[in-house]
Amino acid sequence: MDAAEQEIFIEGHPCVVVDSVQMRYRVPSTAADEVDGEQAGPRFLRRAVRKPNMVTVHALNELSLVVERGESVGIIGRNGSGKSTLMKIICGQSKPTAGAVYASSTPIMLGVNAALVQDLSGDQNVILGCLAMGMSRAEVDAKFSSIVELSGLEKSIHLPMKSYSSGMSSRLRFAIAASVDPEILLVDEALNTGDAQFADRSKLRMAELREQAGCVFLVSHSLDTIKDMCTRAVWLDKGDLIMDGDPDGAIRAYQDFTRHLSKGNNISATKILDDAKAGLVATEVRGRSSRRSRG
Amino acid sequence: MSADSAIDPEPVAVRPLSVDMRRLTRVGSRPSFLDYLVQLWDFRQFIFYDARARVQSGTRRDRLGSAWLILNPIFNGLTYYLIFGLLLKTSRGIENFVGYLVVGIFVFQFSSGAITSGARSIRSNKSVVQAFNFPRAALPIGANLRELLSAVPLLLAMLLIVVVLPPAEKITWLWLLIVPAILLQSLFNLGVGLILARIISRVHDVTHLLPFATRAWMYCSAIFYTYDRFINNPEMLTAIKLNPLFNVIDIIRDCVLYARVPQWQSWAILAAWALGALAVGLVYFWKGEESYGRG
Fold first, then answer.
1. What is the Cα–Cα distance from B148 to B178, expressed in whole angstroms?
2. Cβ B57–A119 below 8 Å, yes or no?
3. Nearest residue in chain A measured CA to CA from B24
4. Closest CA to A99 of A55, A57, A60
5. pTM summary value
6. Sign of the CA dihedral B285, B289, B292, B295?
7. Whether the predicted interface score ipTM is above 0.95
8. Beta bridge pairs of residue A66
């Protein structure tokens, strides 16, 4: 394997560098624990102080990606494969257990999870959210009507957020998040909800944003969307990177895999997964900077 | 239903990529302290809007609305008057005990409220923190600004009570000194709030201790007794005299009730506490900038 030894030199400035990122959670489990009989002290005391049985979840195993300007990366995988975790790490919402993400500007996640203040009214939330994204008051005023229009809330915009239905508040969240034109855009479509009328409007705005953005990360369960929009696809499974390459190949392999799984052919599905993984060429980031230049 | 990959987790091939990192910054990284202060200044509109919007919505659920901002300390004052003034008779030797009590309670409540809401600002706005990227200190600062704004009608009510209730006090130019005293007090509140906000974001249990700490502090601030009580107990006397809140209360009592110029020592102690707490609070809070709202 020649490619493995040769260091590849990337010209120009990449948009996003994901450098050996890893994510683990410690969470309580309700599974019965058997040990810890040797501890001293009365039983009730132990029960009051003892932490519940903690288990480690490997949400994402070590992974590196380099994304250049003009690329749009689709992320595919089954539920629980670490797609959303990866997105959250890239946009800075969660801090990886190990490794780091470097970006040329602040990545903006477009989803419905931009949570807001329940006690304030919709219009107050619009202003607050926009200011929190770093806009000036004049910019907010200029964009205000287009945000309200996109959210489709009309008169309800003056009511407190806590009176909104979940669809209404997710529409408002989307409209606020979509009001900036980010260079690095992350779209998590798996979370997107809303009625048909809103779906059309949001699709339009998302297409606009995708065109303007320097690079795009897209999570979608619709493989057609990924085939249409993306120049590169990343397949994750149970926190492991399986494939990283052109979308057609990755989607074909992923479709094969899920078809075998749904038929119950676990062994053949595993073989597809292993084959795909065997062909993977993992990335290792070697940073260079003006100070410690490597030539 | 398992499709675990059986191969070992190490990738088959590794391709080193040399990447120009000069223009990239780590996502979610903490800026230098001066940059942080500049960022905070850039988000001043967010801070101000956040404070103003929430002053209005804070009491919207109550029928009497904003009147509770004033009724609350009045009822408090009545309770203490009944217990300490009439039952326990701690009022002996205090000139204008009602005024003495009212000033003490109103001013102390401003601090305890501001410190508590500053301390809880990161926890209670977790969703906003996760959704947007802004310097996190904006939230405690906003909370303190909000408390300062809602303290204005409170202080006016306090002055009104002092003027109206017998023995009625005369308005003198000394009343203007309340403004710098309250501003120094706010800086002190902010500093303590920033320190507690970082602690609470890590160890939530501290919120349960907060009410006890403020209560103990209140009993040490000579609100319903004079500090002459401890004239035979020099340690306790020094402790009270160094207490920043006692100094604010003392300054305001001197100005409003007794028409005498406050001692310069009181100002010096108060200013030292205020600026010291603010400096320590800002640096301590900034050091934890990457940890808020994550994990």
1. 13
2. yes
3. A104
4. A60
5. 0.80
6. negative
7. no
8. A17
